[in-house]
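Open question from group meeting: does this chain pack into something compact, or does most of it stay loose? Before anyone orders reagents, we agreed to write out a predicted structure and look at it together. Recording both the input and the output here so the notebook holds the full record.
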Amino acid sequence: MIEILTTDELVRARDTGALVGDILQTVRSRTTVGTNLLDIDRWTKDMITEAGAVSCYVDYAPPFGRGPFGHSICTSVNDAVLHGLPHDYALADGDLLSLDLAVTLDQIAADSAISFIVGDSRAPSDLALIDATERALAAAIAAAGPGARLGDISHAIGAVLGAAGYPINTDFGGHGIGSTMHQDPHVPNAGRAGRGYTLRPGLLLALEPWVMLDTAELVTDPDGWTLRSATGCRTAHSEHTIAITPDGAEILTLPH
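Structure tokens returned:
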């Protein structure tokens, strides 16, 4: 089922989205060489609690994970790209860290992800990965609006990632969001323009381009959650929750 939010629910969605964006920005600003992934999870939990919100992840137990997840944020490092389970690891200079966060506030969820490099080392290939996902996300948002088709979004993402030379995996991608975190429709990171569901005002979508440097194949860690590149190559992930409005697409998960 595809959920269309009311005007009141959209107001609440803006509050949830701002909270997610603010938490991610705060965590990014605090993260330095030596920061432990478990500290990031603790900071996130504290901020969610202080805001009167609820983590979408702690009790999350989908068929593809060894659930429940049990943590408040996904922390994916280097060759890990999705669903990174926080564990006892101190970040090193040059680590490529992806953070993925979803919370529910006042019964409406929002979801966002960022990737960045820890410390001072900046490998050009890592910067290019992050840049490609951010440009793909911007293209997806530009393609979204009332009357557009779902395939327009997928095509926009795939065009950017493909032009950058990265293989594209369509097993995991964007999704509808609203009163729950994961809803229809699925938004793959490649597709054909002009096809699929017609976007309507009130629809919330979490759009999330992610790439791996030289493969489209994923492997699952023994922890049952963390998804890594099959070749051990670096990865990146960017995501925003957007609302379809009569005027276009509104990004909800920007920090204040």
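Observations to bring back to the group:
The first strand starts at residue 54 and ends at 55.
The chain has one domain: 7-251.
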